[in-house]
Amino acid sequence: MTARQAKASEEALLRIFTIPEAPGSTLSVIEQNISQNLMGFLQESVVAVEKPLTEIERDFQEHQIPAAPKFVSDYADEMMKTLVAHSVHTSAPSFIGHMTSALPYFVLPLSKMMVGLNQNLVKIETSKAFTPLERQVLGMMHHLIYDESEAFYKSWMHSANVSLGAFCSGGTVANITALWTARNQLLKADGDFKGIAAQGLMKGLRHYGYNDLAIMVSERGHYSLSKTADLLGIGRENIIQIPTTNDNRVDVDKMRITAKALERDNIKVMAIVGVAGTTETGNIDPLDKLATLAEELNCHFHVDAAWGGASLLSKKYRHLLKGIERADSVTIDAHKQMYVPMGAGMVIFKDPTFANAIKHHAEYILRKGSKDLGSQTLEGSRPGMAMLVHACLQIIGRDGYEILINNSLEKARYFAELIKTTDNFELVSEPELCLLTYRYVPQAVQEAMQQARADGDIERLLQFNRLLDGLTKFVQKRQREQGTSFVSRTRINPENNHDLGVDLKSVVFRVVLANPLTTDEILQQVLVEQTQIASQDKKFLPQLLELAKT
Amino acid sequence: MTARQAKASEEALLRIFTIPEAPGSTLSVIEQNISQNLMGFLQESVVAVEKPLTEIERDFQEHQIPAAPKFVSDYADEMMKTLVAHSVHTSAPSFIGHMTSALPYFVLPLSKMMVGLNQNLVKIETSKAFTPLERQVLGMMHHLIYDESEAFYKSWMHSANVSLGAFCSGGTVANITALWTARNQLLKADGDFKGIAAQGLMKGLRHYGYNDLAIMVSERGHYSLSKTADLLGIGRENIIQIPTTNDNRVDVDKMRITAKALERDNIKVMAIVGVAGTTETGNIDPLDKLATLAEELNCHFHVDAAWGGASLLSKKYRHLLKGIERADSVTIDAHKQMYVPMGAGMVIFKDPTFANAIKHHAEYILRKGSKDLGSQTLEGSRPGMAMLVHACLQIIGRDGYEILINNSLEKARYFAELIKTTDNFELVSEPELCLLTYRYVPQAVQEAMQQARADGDIERLLQFNRLLDGLTKFVQKRQREQGTSFVSRTRINPENNHDLGVDLKSVVFRVVLANPLTTDEILQQVLVEQTQIASQDKKFLPQLLELAKT
């Protein structure tokens, strides 16, 4: 390359940093479509019929970074075909299988503003007003949970070296942060011992004379908790899973008995985790009772309200989470039922000084006495997602959330009724928040199973379940592939089996009704579609009907 | 509220989900300004003169979530005044204090697309084509580091249950993920022992018969490593900081001696971390020698190339990172010198099966045998940031990055020369990549200090340093407040003191030249401005000049 050519390439390159996309460019047109009609854009751009993953992968096979630069318009064209077309229409009102929803329009331009400002929240020097804003959002969420006095927030919300919580990329990091802090508070500096943060877990256990640590949680606890136990060096086996009662809530009496047994083995219960909205069935543990038990055991009480936490915004239904105000820490994901885009988790600490147990400093950053938020977070550099939560809280407001949450919960109750009154469907778990599970069970099979249950004929029930599992998987997979609607699936032990004393885990459909645009008609249509698909099954359905006859 | 009123509020509320922002609305106008002239928007909207933080906080005092919804336009107006105006213009070409830069324009509309699609990368069911895309980006980065064969990538890039790395929100999580995996690989299942992931650190140490674990790293290692040691239960004291040689690179001989001492105490070196681009001085450890030592010790070799890693994209300068291809894992932040917005960290694993040590499954998600990326990440739900890295790799290409990286490194060399030849400035550390440190030292003081150094008069050097520290802080703070340009500051022991055998830590200016729009003229102007500010100091400067005379 000659010097002149080099100069020319360089100038061409700098233009991507200085010359905006022309209004008529491919990417600008795409952007305009998104701005003017996101739902339409997604409906048109995302293909309805599923392409096998191995075929999608063909477009992403190249393993070398391409040498030559590519025109933005060519790239945009290509991505429309290979990426957008084969994305998931997570905001479709009929996509009711996961905790995604339609987003308010205003988050689109605001996200762009956030990206354009490109602040780094680790430190005030690279975030300035974003730091007080994030502290305010944490303060508002703290108030939503704990309802402390005005004086409390005046003292603590913007106070250097403390924080009312931490923003995280998601609920997993929030749970890790909470339990990391709890572990460090438990094994804190004491006498000669400089604390677990400095000297590690083994010396901590030795100093305090514990054989081991344990965390107790419902068997319905999120898998991020066992990830946490692994990460923190406690070990997944020390996440003690406590059975639930018939309503999918943790059995606090059994938990108390387990705690006693652990105590006898000199294993210190480091924390109790209450689940406020289990991922599989949406139930809420008896938080008040758990808080009392945590007091008895003198241990940390964490509530994983990653998605249930949003229901605190409903005056009508917040009673369902009663006891959460006694938690030492709470996880809430704003990207679930608070209608913020992916990437906005939070952990809130009751005591503003609690997070000091994980405080870090560094010379060039996070100086002592500063108001930098990065000294009490697991993550380092991170974006200003707090702005989008702030925007939703202000623009939707308590009154707006009241309507959104209540509608969502009431839609779940409507769907539960619909399932119960529709032939060949069986509601497996009632909605406590906006999540429920159910399955397709031909009427004749329902009756035969009821009889088997009355007879205590476990073997027969197992036979039915095996076939029903196959049928449920078939329906769920086919429905997803058809692309009109989507429900997810999981495996749980239906309530009506609990008395049998055996675990009859079954595959079930799982539905989350968080999308404000999901209508009753869509829910009716989901059952119609599932009924049609089930009737096409040539493998499990005939066997089921046959078995019911014998 | 009557039923009719309630219905009306509900309909109004649903409009934020269904009716796009009107083209003439406040928020649309703001967005247009951002799209058409980001630099102009930031220059006009972000105020130049700094407002004290306590005043900014006044706009973020309210601790209650407002009851009434707010118009989007009112909110947008308010945020322009309270948030945007007091943000940091991180992309200004004269903002050379941190690792932020101007962004390519195309990331703005693409970010919007990413937010609109709102995919969740934890699982294919909520990400589909985004998962193969992310795997491809990880594959390309793997190839950039390890240059494996085509067959290798064909076998592994899209293979279920393995991954060539993990996307993370940033370098901190990437470092944690790498060392978590290393810890779990070391204390893996063996005989009766089910592995640390299941049974915890204490049982792991007991089973393998180690007294403790240690991680060795240069004293210039990033603070995220001590955070990692805390989190993993190893303890910050077990991050063994090894002194550097005169060039700010870790002293491998000293590291070897330390390793022997640890071995004698039966403390297992779990990992050696090489730094490829220290945060404070930008130097690169002798990676080849570290790799050899790691082989001798039979331990994990991790390279923290969070910002230095981008230099691998330069054929001309990638030799500076020689030895990185022998690392077991590497951290690279795309939001640093790869020109991607905040929130795009990566850890890359040499061995595709390595991350199996942190694998997690759950019934409703992450089923065994799936290609879900979430089973080998620390985070759970997370956004499709990989798309923006993918876009930069394709649109900028190797050739484009070659120019950007080379210019950046050469600009640093130019600035170093400029500092050396400008009166009253002292270069403290030479740029190896695009980072350097320096300070303002009046010529007379430079000479007096040289004499004191020759005399070995430590006391006198300390006196000078104390005053220089004050002066440097004054200049840096005032410069930031004036808002025209920005350099950061840190504390290091300048090279020319190393032979004295004492640690004469000094406050220095720190400059990162990653922004392609930073010109030579801007750099010249930075020194002019600093000279002016220094001359205004009435406290330290007179004392310094006085001391130099005695």
From TrEMBL, chains A, B:
It comes from the Bacteria. InterPro entries: Asp_decarboxylase_pyridox, PyrdxlP-dep_de-COase, PyrdxlP-dep_Trfase, PyrdxlP-dep_Trfase_major, PyrdxlP-dep_Trfase_small. Belongs to the group II decarboxylase family. One of its GO terms (molecular function) is pyridoxal phosphate binding. The keyword DNA damage does not apply. The keyword Lyase applies. It comes from Shewanella atlantica. This is Putative pyridoxal-dependent aspartate 1-decarboxylase. One of its GO terms (cellular component) is cytoplasm. Its cofactor is pyridoxal 5'-phosphate. Transmembrane segments: none annotated. Keywords: Decarboxylase, Lyase, Pyridoxal phosphate. GO terms for biological process: carboxylic acid metabolic process. It holds the Pfam family Pyridoxal_deC. The modification N6-(pyridoxal phosphate)lysine is found at residue 336. NCBIfam families: NOD_PanD_pyr.
